């Protein structure tokens, strides 16, 4: 497997999705509880890719290198699953400083649009495009396509 800083890895612009069984927030911080073990990514043209990376590895995208999430924090849309016919409206946030603790992932956030509920049930965090040499190397299928 190549490393994050491997110049041989082709760059793609990927979107990410994290899902969790519950959500909580306090001013300036959100927490995804019951976080899925992997973060899904996908990219569109010119090179269509889909795959997943361990959520712990996704958190590493905030560290080191000339291009990382700490230098260019991504926007994200937080979307909540309907429960009992109601769900909080989506909210747009700027993500910073992820902290992973077992199956809970917290971010420092700036709210760009909407409001955050104090608590909610299942949710998905759709994280904006960020191009960097790393994303597709996590899946064997991507490795085979690159080699073939």
Topology of this structure?
Elements lengths: L11 E9 L1 E5 L2 E5 L4 E6 L5 E6 H5 L15 E6 L10 E11 L2 E10 L5 E2 L2 E10 L7 H8 L1
Antiparallel strand pairs: 1-4, 1-10, 2-3, 2-9, 3-8, 4-5, 6-7, 6-10, 7-8
Task: Describe the protein's architecture and organization.
It is globular, with a radius of gyration of 16 Å. Helix content is 9%, strand content 47%. The N terminus and C terminus are likely disordered. The protein is mainly β. A ten-stranded antiparallel beta sheet has the order 5-4-1-10-6-7-8-3-2-9. The two termini are 16 Å apart. Strand 7 and strand 8 form a beta hairpin. The chain has one domain. The protein is built from two helices and ten strands.
Q: β content, as a range?
A: over 45%
Radius of gyration, rounded? 16 Å
**What count of structural domains?**
1
Output the number of helix runs: 2
Terminal residue distance: 16 Å
Which shape, going by the Cα principal axes? globular
Within the largest sheet, what's the order of strands?
5-4-1-10-6-7-8-3-2-9
Please give the number of β-strands. 10
Report low-confidence residues grouped into runs of 5 or more: 1-9, 131-148
For the biggest sheet, the summary is: 10 strands, antiparallel
Would you list the SSEs in sequence order as H and E? EEEEEHEEEEEH
Average pLDDT figure: 79
Structural class assignment: mainly beta
Q: Could you estimate the helical fraction of the residues in percent? A: under 10%
């Amino acid at each position: 497997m190549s490393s994050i800083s491997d110049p041989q890895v082709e760059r793609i612009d990927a979107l990410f999705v994290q899902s969790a069984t519950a959500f909580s927030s306090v001013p300036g911080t959100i927490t995804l509880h019951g976080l899925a073990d992997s973060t899904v990514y996908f990219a569109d043209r010119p090179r269509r890719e889909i795959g997943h990376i361990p959520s712990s590895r996704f958190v590493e995208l905030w560290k080191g290198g000339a291009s990382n999430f700490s230098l260019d924090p991504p926007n994200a849309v937080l979307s909540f699953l309907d429960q009992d016919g109601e769900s909080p409206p989506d909210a747009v946030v700027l993500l910073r400083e992820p902290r992973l603790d077992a199956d809970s992932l917290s971010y420092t956030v700036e709210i760009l649009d909407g409001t955050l509920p104090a608590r909610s049930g299942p949710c998905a965090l759709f994280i904006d495009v960020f191009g960097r040499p790393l994303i597709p190397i996590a899946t064997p299928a991507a490795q085979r396509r690159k080699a073939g």
